[in-house]
Task: inverse folding
């Protein structure tokens, strides 16, 4: 199959979850004999035309000059190019700006849309933007040939709202073969002697709630925050919370370093509240983290009983002052690692996408102009 993937800033991953997903999926599909093209932003530092056998198409991206509106220009440029490529499958990751251009989606390709999370619920957006994002969700759901949800919660919501079947394929993660404790040295950290939070600096990730709960507790361990603080919210957090034992270490895209910080943390905070199967959560599980997570259906579907949960600053302070016994913590780690090994492997995710593409290309079955999820 000739497969195009758009909707990310590109590969190799230098940003976040969808980029990580595009990286593993594209390489996995190439290893199975398919021809794969990934669209890269012109702002991406990687400049070659190929990476690990995946073809790279660079498209003009004005986000650095005009802000988030540049995403619409970037997606327009990607789709305009995709119309000329003769793809069998065009996988679009997310819908926030892609769906505006649904009339440009190549008609001769199978248009597969990964519907991501409930973007219109994100607290960082104002009322008008949320209204637009709800429309964008509707356009994607109406015009995509195949819709994919990464969590059962998202799938159930979309099926009920738009009366269309969805494929459920989660994200994946790798269990590291080793951890380099020496990576802690640059921040003066010791094994099991710090708390960790890894997230984009956005309000809906409840970073401020976690900081305030940590401050309110009778804390004895530093709190380390991994994430690029270059936006307005990140700047606000850094200016507001100045503590010697509150470490803003910035974005870390070296997997060996990030995995060591995860593995050797005492507890890992996961504050994400909007979305499906979050990649950073799976990576924390893969690194044998003891996890304290925001209490919502997305996180609970994945973690089940193998985590502590919070919904307020007081909850966080209480968790830190009354931590579980070591036996329970060890059980959390073991069970969550087994989930990664059995349910969230990249090999399994690549298999599922390959099968979804192949089935719907070879056995196209149209009802009311839409392909069925076979």
Result:
């Amino acid at each position: 199959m000739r497969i195009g993937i758009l909707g990310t800033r590109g590969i190799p991953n230098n940003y976040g979850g969808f980029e990580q997903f595009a990286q593993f999926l594209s390489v996995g599909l190439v290893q199975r004999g398919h021809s794969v093209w990934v669209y890269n932003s012109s702002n991406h530092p990687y400049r070659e035309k190929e990476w690990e056998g995946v073809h790279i198409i660079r498209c003009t991206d004005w986000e650095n000059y005009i802000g988030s509106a540049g995403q619409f220009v970037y997606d327009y440029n990607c789709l305009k190019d995709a119309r000329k490529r003769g793809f069998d499958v065009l996988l679009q990751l997310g819908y926030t700006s892609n769906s505006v251009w649904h009339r440009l989606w190549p008609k001769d390709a199978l248009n597969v849309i990964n519907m991501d999370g409930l973007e219109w619920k994100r607290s960082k957006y104002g009322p008008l933007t949320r209204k637009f994002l709800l429309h964008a969700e509707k356009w994607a759901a109406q015009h995509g040939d195949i819709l994919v949800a990464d969590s059962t919660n998202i799938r159930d919501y979309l099926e009920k709202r738009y009366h269309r079947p969805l494929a459920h394929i989660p994200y994946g993660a790798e269990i590291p073969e080793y951890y380099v404790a020496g990576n802690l040295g640059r921040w003066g950290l010791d094994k099991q002697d710090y708390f960790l939070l890894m997230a984009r600096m956005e309000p809906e990730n409840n970073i401020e709630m976690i900081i305030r709960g940590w401050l309110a507790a009778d804390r004895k361990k530093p709190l380390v925050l991994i994430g690029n603080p270059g936006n307005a919210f990140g700047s606000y957090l850094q200016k507001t919370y100045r503590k010697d034992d509150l470490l803003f270490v910035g974005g870390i895209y070296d997997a060996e370093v990030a995995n060591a910080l995860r593995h050797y943390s005492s507890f890992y905070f996961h504050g994400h509240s909007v979305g499906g199967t979050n990649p950073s959560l799976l990576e924390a599980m893969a690194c044998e983290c003891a996890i304290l997570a925001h209490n919502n259906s997305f996180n609970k579907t994945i973690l089940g009983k193998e985590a502590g949960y919070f919904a307020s600053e007081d909850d966080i302070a209480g968790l830190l002052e009354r931590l579980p016994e070591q036996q329970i913590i060890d059980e959390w780690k073991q069970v969550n690692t087994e989930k990664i090994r059995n349910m969230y492997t990249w090999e399994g995710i690549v298999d599922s996408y390959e099968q979804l593409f192949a089935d719907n290309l070879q056995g196209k079955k149209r009802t009311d102009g839409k392909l069925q999820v076979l």
